[in-house]
Amino acid sequence: MAEISSSSNLSAEDLAEVYTLHPSDHPGMLLVSQVFDGNGFGSWRRALLIALSTTGKLFFIDGTLTRPISTSDLKRWIKCNDMVMAWILNVVAEDIGDGIIYAKSARDM
Q1: Beta partners for 65?
Q2: What are the Cα distances from residue 97, in Å, to 33, 67, 80, 86, 93?
Q3: 48: domain range?
Q4: Residue 42: inside a domain, yes or no?
Q5: Which of 36, 31, 34 is CA-nearest to residue 86?
Q6: Where are the transmembrane segments (predicted)?
């Protein structure tokens, strides 16, 4: 199982959804229509949170789901975390992306 913060009670069903990538999910997806360029952070952030919630990936950035210790979940976590990171990079301006691309996790971005 994934290492989960003490404030969370993710069920096995929730974890299955979190680690599921649908056929339409791809690294080039634009989750929100507006690219964050340093202006309008509040509305951009809210739109991104809504989009991540609908994909079941909000747990990767809100601190609920951390990098798992077990090897079996680690591969799935890395794949989904990398997808979320790609989605975030797609909706920030290039100069902002240059500053966050080397983050170790989507949460760190």
Answers
A1: 4
A2: 16, 22, 19, 10, 6
A3: 12-21+32-100
A4: yes
A5: 31
A6: none
